Amino acid sequence: MEQALVTAHGLFAERGYAVVTMDEVAAAVGVTKPLLYNYFGNKERLYVACMERAGDALVRTILETVGDASSPSEALNEGLRAFFAFLDADRDAWAVLFDETLPHSGEVADRVAEYRGRLISLVAESLLAELPAKRRAAAQIEVEALSAALLGAAEALARWWLRTEATTASEAAELLIATIEPGLRLRSTPSAKSSRPKPKGDRS
Predict the structure, then answer these.
(1) Does 168 reside within a domain?
(2) What's the CATH code of the domain at 137?
(3) Three-state SS string across 154-179, please?
(4) For the chain, how many structural domains are there in total?
């Protein structure tokens, strides 16, 4: 059912998960709805099949890009550039993977969370590698939080860029890099830990 996946992918990208029906997909493919259900089970599983292609392609693109980086900071920057280049090159894949009409629970939501988790892990690996080895274990939670925030910023900027196209995708990537890099560099220095605000009641 390759044609069904290609057709469904296009419909989901154009109109969103919430709007597209199995009847529409079946009609567009030229098969009966029972046959479509026989292959995919339900709309959630059909969407997951489309999402897996988009998600795997994005993760593969980023991994191939950062694999040639000479340092953790370069890997992070190149990963962000690859993220925006992917968006520019395959907007349908982006639309399927980051559809704002997706349900917040169930199989589709679980798969979205899995792909976001993989992207956050890639960011976290780069951030942790920037820290001195003796600080990495203690910084694990902070790095995970920063990685999630960074992915959120990239998604938000990507949505803005898709809506306005006021810059090129590469310019949007460079804007994000230039914004976050100084702060990340500062936090990776040995003195960063001592500059954090102390919890209330801590007078030491």
Answers:
(1) yes
(2) 1.10.357.10
(3) HHHHHHHHHHHCCCCHHHHHHHHHHH
(4) 1
**How far apart (Å, rounded) are the C-alpha atoms in residues 143 and 131?**
10
77-115 pLDDT, tens digit each? 999 999 999 999 999 999 999 999 999 999 999 999 999
Provide the whole-model pTM.
Answer: 0.81
* HEC profile of 12-71: HHHHCCCCCCHHHHHHHHCCCHHHHHHHHCCHHHHHHHHHHHHHHHHHHHHHHHHCCCCC
**Domain span at residue 72?**
54-189
CB distance 128 to 69 below 8 Å = no
10 Å Cβ neighbour count for 77?
21
- In Å, what is the CA distance from 200 to each residue of 26, 191, 197, 203, 204? 61, 21, 9, 8, 11
Q: Enter the tokens of residue 158.
A: 């990507």
Measure the CA–CA gap between 160 and 179, rounded to whole angstroms.
16
Distance separating alpha carbons of residues 62 and 50, to the nearest angstrom: 19
pLDDT per residue as tens digits for the range 161-189: 999 999 999 999 999 999 988 877 776 66
Handedness of CA 73, 59, 102, 27 (dihedral sign): positive
Distance CA 109, CA 129 (A): 30
